[in-house]
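Supplementary Methods, section 5.1.

A reviewer requested that the exact input to the structure prediction be made available. We therefore reproduce it here, unchanged from the version used in the analyses.
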Amino acid sequence: MKPYWFQWGFTMPALTIKNIPDDLYLRLKAAAKVHRRSLNSEILYCVERTLVPYKMDVAEHLLTARRLREKTADYQLTDELLNVAKNDGRK
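The structure derived from this sequence is encoded token-by-token as follows.
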């Protein structure tokens, strides 16, 4: 009987990571828990986000910006409002 991972006639490469600093390991482990992933899946996600270029759809990005501007058009910020917000509770 063939192993489960070999049923389709191919194998996926494996990688062993050695000498991971303790603080990095703990951060990866915490991130995996927060994202509900295995440690292996979290590492693959991080590597993929770093090495695989993200191609931004410019039209989609502009549409998102326009929608955000429409939602916030009625909220005019002034220096006075910002100063009140910054100083609120400082007294």
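Residues 58-72 form the longest helix (15 residues). These observations are discussed further in the main text.
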